[in-house]
Design goal:
It contains 9 helices and 5 strands. The protein has 163 residues and is α/β, with parallel strands linked by helices. It has a single domain, classed as Rossmann fold (3-Layer(aba) Sandwich).
Length: 163
């Protein structure tokens, strides 16, 4: 199984749970998983990470393998399916929630599509909120598209990774 990681996989780990300067063993393990091809991501995630000129951006650019961030446009048909699902939920989600989820430069819908097309599991720190009207949470989109999703610890357990 290959796992596709969301932006918040990196951002929350760096800013909250496993800061680079405090938990270097965590980041070494993540780099190893990336080099082994067990975790990957997409170009949209890289763009979101590159918005912040910080230590995390530098780590991603200097440590992750060159082939870690895949081209999201290779899954355009799966992206269309994801868009159709989101639009079909316009009675539940507010227009601004749909606009954010479907914004072409945002990663979430593309991550679901890439996972759908390539039989992957999405890794995100987002928590399902099926009754939400103001946000489409990545786990809820995954459930709708029948794409498995886990949080970081769930993924590490599934892989059998320890730090």
């Amino acid at each position: 199984m290959t796992y596709i990681v969301d932006s918040n996989f990196f951002i929350e780990a760096h800013r909250v749970t496993y800061p680079l300067d405090v938990m270097p063993a965590y980041w070494t393990r993540i780099a190893d998983l990336a080099k082994q091809g067990k975790i990957i991501s997409i170009d949209k995630v890289k763009a979101e990470l590159d918005k912040h000129d910080d230590e995390l951006k530098a780590w991603c650019n200097n440590v992750l393998p060159d082939n870690f961030f895949f081209n999201s446009t290779t899954c355009i048909e799966a992206y269309r399916q994801t868009v159709r699902w989101a639009v079909s939920k316009s009675d539940q989600y507010r227009p601004d929630a749909l606009a954010v989820f479907l914004a072409a430069e945002r990663a979430d819908a593309w991550i679901v599509a890439y996972a759908l097309q390539n039989n992957m599991t999405v890794v995100t720190q987002e928590v399902s909120a099926p009754d939400s009207k103001k946000n489409i949470k990545l786990p809820d989109a995954c459930i709708a598209m029948e794409v498995p999703s886990l949080n970081t610890i769930g993924m590490l357990r599934a892989i059998g990774a320890t730090i």
